Amino acid sequence: MTSDQTIRSSTPPSAGSADGGRHRAASGRNIPVDTLRGLACILLVTFHVIGDTAAAGIHVADDSAFRYYCDSVQYLRMPLFTFLSGLVYAWRPLSDIRAYPKFMGKKVRRLLVPYVIFIPVLGLTQMYAPGVNGTVDPDPLLWWINSLSPYWFLLSTFWLFALVALLDSRGLLRSPWAFGGLFAASVLISLLTRPETVETLQLGTALSFLPFFLAGVGAFRFRLIPQRTMTAVPVTLVLLVLVVLVQLSLTGHLERFETRHSLVGIALGVVFPVAFLGWSLKSRVLAWIGGYSSGIYLLHSFAVGAFRAVTGAVGLDADLPRFIILSVGGIFASIFGVIVLRHVRIGPVQIGRIMLGEKVKK
């Protein structure tokens, strides 16, 4: 995208940066943002290893420490991925409606092509190996229409990009007031309704995650990520208050806060990445993992399922060893899978990169 097609609300770095260019590696990648991506990947994989109920994952009891962990990270896991998607969009936003088809074409490659490819792969795996990755609806058409976990996020994010880029290309989100009005409206919708109950093509789910996507956009566009200690400290204090409130609710001392339908839940999903990036926290290991975040998202279900089958075959049923093996194996096997797929070709066609939604190298 050329420079005249971007809104320069603040100076965007050459490779995209939440901090105007600080903490960039020699490759041009932003280390704190990649660190946050890596953390999001770990939350994603470990959550799916444990499962959202006692009947899923490694079948832990509802009163176990593993369940408490899942309930806690639920407030951060997918809101974090969504916030980062909005942040990345804000690095190179769209300002010319004429560039909208080209912009969305890239999102089709990045999100819809992997969706169309991996949905049937996962569906067939679940259908013929139910003990590995769960169960699936017997009607394959519904796999694409209502989606399969975790690929619903690809479709949901596609609609978020489509909506925000369209509004941006018309200049409707340049004003802080207009942007704030849309953000407030999105929060109000999440508080008063349950749009995710509309499962068709994940349109309702996209609406329920709109506050987090807009928060990522607004955090960069309006320079809301703290740049100094004097501003990072109060944001961190707010974060700590939100964490305490959530933990009190999880332990029964307060009424349960819903992740996407309560002010506390939404605020925690927004304030956490803002505080994290405000302190420019970074880890080379997490950043390295974060560099493979898209591939990990696409492949971790298969990687975790494979390790679950192996541990089951050898009779390993202790929760902690299985959790460690499936989590570590799920992450690193997914990264290995990305590396392998990037070299898979059918004649001149780089089929592996197409599956991953990556740009084909010439």
Describe what this molecule looks like in 3D.
Belongs to the acyltransferase 3 family. One of its GO terms (molecular function) is O-acetyltransferase activity. Pfam families: Acyl_transf_3. It is found in: Cell membrane. The chain is an all-alpha fold and 362 residues long. The chain has one domain (3-356). Helix content is 64%, strand content 0%. It has 15 helices and no strands. The protein has helices at 31-50, 65-73, 77-91, 100-128, 130-133, 140-146, 152-169, 176-192, 203-221, 229-250, 263-278, 284-290, 293-313, 319-341, 351-356. Helix 1 (31-50) runs parallel beside helix 13 (293-313). The longest helix has 29 residues, at 100-128. It is globular and about 60 Å long. It starts with 30 loop residues before the first helix and ends in a 6-residue tail after the last helix. Residues 1-22 have low confidence and may be disordered.
Short synopsis of the structure:
64% of the residues lie in helices and 0% in strands.
The proportion of residues in beta strands is under 5%
Inertia-based shape:
globular
Q: Assign the structural class, choosing from mainly alpha, mainly beta, alpha/beta, alpha+beta, or little secondary structure.
A: mainly alpha
Give the beta-strand count.
0
Ends apart, CA distance between termini: 18 Å
Q: How many helix segments?
A: 15
Spans with pLDDT under 50 lasting ≥5 residues? 1-22
- Written as H for each helix and E for each strand, in order along the chain, the element string is HHHHHHHHHHHHHHH
**Average pLDDT figure:** 90
Helix content: 55-70%
**What can be said about the biggest beta sheet?**
none
Q: How many domain units?
A: 1
- Give the C-alpha Rg: 20 Å
